[in-house]
Amino acid sequence: MLPWLRRLLIASIAAVLFWTIALMIFENQFIYFPEKYPKGPYDQARSIPGLRECWITTPDGIKIHAWFAPAESARATLVISHGNAGNISHRYLLLRSLQKHRYHVLMYDYRGYGRSEGTPSEDGIYIDGRAAFDYVLTLPGVDSAHTFLWGTSLGGAVAVDVAIHRPVAGVILESTFTSAKDVARVFYPFLPVQYFLQTKLNSIDKIRTLHVPVLVVHGSHDTIIPVGFGRQLFQAANEPKEFYEISGADHDDTFFVGGEEYFDRIDRFVVSALPASSALRK
User: What confidence tier does 276 reach under pLDDT thresholds 50, 70, 90?
Assistant: First the structure.
């Protein structure tokens, strides 16, 4: 072997080993990107009518922060698990839009995000999701038969996990993925990190056990989580299920690009999933 080729091979192997070990050691730092309060448009969010500050204590003693936006003559309640970056304040426009479309909305921050205590982990965010669902059922006019789980990106894995542990009316999965290993293959195609990942976020296997209505929403031009992941989740889900691909949408702009059609699809899904003549109490 030529000396220069040998040096190149050794350098390449060393680089692969270095980055694989780094990803193994700092795994959570490559998955969770929280922003702590006061970073974010908190002041703008407080203009949402009737917005309530909520504090939820999880079974393992972590206090997490949430917002509850009540709606007049609400048709259902949505519990929203957001993506892996930022905090709930960055999603206030979606929260307000859903409230306008007559949904009660509970949106919460995982441990370590926004004003919530603790540090994020896979087990931790699942605990947070279940605690948020349990909490919303204690609020006046909310019951599980009219409560839907909504998960965006990372939150999709949380929504699916909560749905297999709690009775829900349905699940909405937006811009989400099949499993952490599948995402690792896309983000790090030249590194064997999928073989060493401790984080599973295995929605593809869990969704096969769900028997509630599922709506999968994905942008056709998602540059973070390819739309193929959404299609795979849809194929694995049991009936009744719907797939809504938003033409031209990327990862974080689905409701902007989708416009009124986006909310019409949400409305139709919710109505179809609820019993006839069903409505929430005020």
Answer: low
Which token pair is 20?
């694989």
List residues with catalytic annotation. 153, 222, 251
Contact 201, 150 (CB under 8 A): no
Residue 209's Cβ-count burial label (10 Å; 0-12, 13-18, 19+) is exposed
Q: Which amino acid is at 105?
A: V
Residue pair 172/151 in contact by the 8 Å Cβ criterion: yes
Domain ranges of the chain: 1-30, 34-273
Compute how many other C-beta atoms are within 10 angstroms of the C-beta atom of residue 184. 22
Amino acid sitting at position 166: R
Residue pair 54/68 in contact (Cβ under 8 Å)? The answer is yes
Q: pLDDT digits over 134-188, tens only? A: 999 999 999 999 999 999 999 999 999 999 999 999 999 999 999 999 998 888 7
Q: Would you state the CATH architecture of domain 34-273?
A: 3-Layer(aba) Sandwich (3.40)
Question: Measured between alpha carbons, how far is residue 205 from residues 128, 160, 162 in Å?
Answer: 21, 10, 14
Q: Which two tokens stand for residue 73?
A: 């003559």
In whole angstroms, give the CA distance from residue 248 to residue 8. Answer: 41
Mean pLDDT of the chain: 91
The two structure tokens encoding residue 272: 């179809």
Whole-model pTM over 0.85: yes
207 in helix, strand or coil? Answer: helix
Sequence-distant (6+) residues with CB within 8 A of 225 are 153, 175, 176, 177, 183, 218, 251
pLDDT in tens, 120-130: 999 999 999 99
The stretch 41-70 carries a mean pLDDT of: 97
